[in-house]
Structure formats: structure tokens, C-alpha cells
Amino acid sequence: MSMSFERYMLDMVQPMRDDLTRLGIEELRTPEDVEAKLPDAKGTALVVVNSVCGCAAGQCRPGVAQALQHDITPDHLYTVFAGQDKEATAKAREYFAPYPPSSPSIALMKDGELVHFIERHQIENRSAADIAADLTSAFDRFCR
Fold it and tell me: Which family does it belong to (predicted)?
């Protein structure tokens, strides 16, 4: 029985992708997908840089899920997957300046401009509830 590494990785990360897509978050898998959505997204857009790490599983994805239960949420919901959809992630990160690459991370954009950013170091030592509170505060401020 033989399985390619690529197939193995796709199978392994699918549940991690599903954690976000089942919330209605759209995957941007190519640089073209990113370019078609981010620069022209009117209103607010949440962009989650997903990852296979433990802090993505334990804090980031659950925190995003909790935040999206809030009364006020962004108009658009997107995700890229670091380490998997590398070119799409690199393209999305161009919109997150001046922040360096960080996985996982969460960006909130308004009319194509970054207005709030949560870096990995702000995820890995906080609870999902803390991340949700950070996001809902940003939603209240920028998504009205």
C-alpha cells in the first residue's frame, strides 16, 4: 500500500480546512483567488491564515468560530492555508503590511485596507475566548 506525501497531506489537513469552511468561510486557494476577492471587497473582510499547528487548532479556529456567533460580523469571510496553499498565502500576506508573515493569524480589512491584525504570538498564549473577544471588539468597531 503506497500513498503519495501530497495525498497524505491533503487528507490530513482537510479536517483543519473544514473547521473554517463549515462556518461559511471561503477558501482562497490560489493567488488569483486572493486577487479576485481582497482588493475589491467592499465593506469588511475577515481573512484567517490557517495552519496545522496546535495553536491554530486549540485557539485560532475555535476563537474565530466563537466570534462569528456575535451579532455584528464582517461582510466577507476568507481563509488561506499556510504551508498548503503557499502562493495564495503569500499573496494574502501582501495586504497585511507592515506585519511579518505569521501563521496562524487573523486580519480584518475594511474596503481593502488592513484595520486589525492578530499575530501568532497574540494567539498561542491566549484562550479561544480571549481571541473571540478581541475579534468581536474589532467587529463592533469596524463592521457597523
Answer: Belongs to the bacilliredoxin family.
* DSSP-assigned beta bridge partners for residue 64: none
Active site residues: 53, 55
Whole-prediction pTM value? 0.94
DSSP class of residue 94 equals G
The three three-digit cell numbers of residue 35, written as one number? 486577487
- The CA radius of gyration of the chain, in Å to the nearest whole number, is 15
Q: Residue 1: its pLDDT value, please?
A: 55
How does pLDDT run across 62-82, given as a tens digit for each residue? 999 999 999 999 999 999 999
Whole-angstrom distance, CA of residue 46 vs CA of residue 77: 5
Task: Please give, one letter per residue, the 3-state secondary structure of 21-48.
Answer: HCCCCEECCCHHHHHHHCCCCCCEEEEE
Please say whether the beta carbons of 130 and 63 come within 8 A: yes
The reply to whether omega before 15 is within 30° of 0 (cis) is: no
Instruction: Report how far residue 40's alpha carbon sits from residue 130's, in angstroms, rounded to the nearest whole number.
Output: 30
